Amino acid sequence: MYDHVTEDQVVVAIDELQQAIGVKDERSSAELLSLLQQKKVQECVQRIATWLGLPIRIVLTIIPPNATPGSGKGFGGASLARTDSEGHGMEGITAQVEIPRNLPMFGTRRLDDYPINVQVGADCLDVPRTFLVVMAHELSHVVLEAIRFPRRDSELHTDLVPLLLGFREIVRVGRKVISTSTVGGVTTTETTTFGYVPDSQFAFACSRITSMVESYHEQKLNVSKEEKKLRHIISEVEHQSERFCDYLHFLDSYPPRRIGSRYGSAIVEFHSPDYSRQRELATTRAATVLGKAEGQVRHLTHYRRDTRQELHGLAMELSAVHSELQKHLQATKQDVLVLRRCVPLLYALRTWPVFGWLSKRLYARP
Hints:
This protein folds into two domains: 2-178 and 189-197, no CATH class; 213-362. 56% of the residues lie in helices and 10% in strands. The protein has twelve helices and seven strands.
């Protein structure tokens, strides 16, 4: 059945799954392979479950190579292997997961630390990268059952779950096992494909999902650009505010003998208790919005159906706060310019090395 799957079927399946489970950034296999190298198989499978978003507890059983179904030591159910046009297995049973009929729903407390029995053939451990593919597939059955996905019995949908949840490269590398044997001087090469999606549709599915992820990355980049702009203007407003307070304090400490009425009335207004209040509130509000955006985007790797709207909303909010702060910045610069014209030139230039020492001598802060 799956040898004849079409691109349209893959598109429909991906869209259905995205609505239900979202899509994640790519995961590296390095950590998982390291655990297998240390023979920490249980930890490895548990990590895969966590990456798939499952809060379950894995109970792993390794099945001996010669075990048979019904013996109590063999498999008794579904497998991860290529199927023919009639849906029959072509490579035999490799792994299975036991899903209880009363499996708690995703998002409920009962699913936390819920034990799930997983069996895997010992031969699969001989090829670590394929072992990761098998486990990701088998645990995807649990994902679909836990969310009560309508098509949870579909192996096509099950095969696509790891691709959506960050295992695209892991599956691409590990889904095929190539073995060679030589008999009577004749060398035979055999390729075993793990999974139900044909190669052409697998590549198409990965490409489509990668494009989806990249579109979210573009949105994240837009948000990051707005963050950078807002961060810069917050810094500039704070700098100008410091200059404003510094000049105002200087004039209070060293009142000029003569000052124009235009500047005098402005300086009187500057001393109003609430004169800088709106600017301070705007700066605080901008810092709050910036912190919220950074917190949401920095660790965002799982994109759900409402993520696109959320990212758009963040970008718009950052832009709006930036525009508001821009007005306060321009007003503060004008105020600083007024004060700058009332303080001695030497004091205004005190940050220059050549004038700094002399300015400090003449205008030591009271």
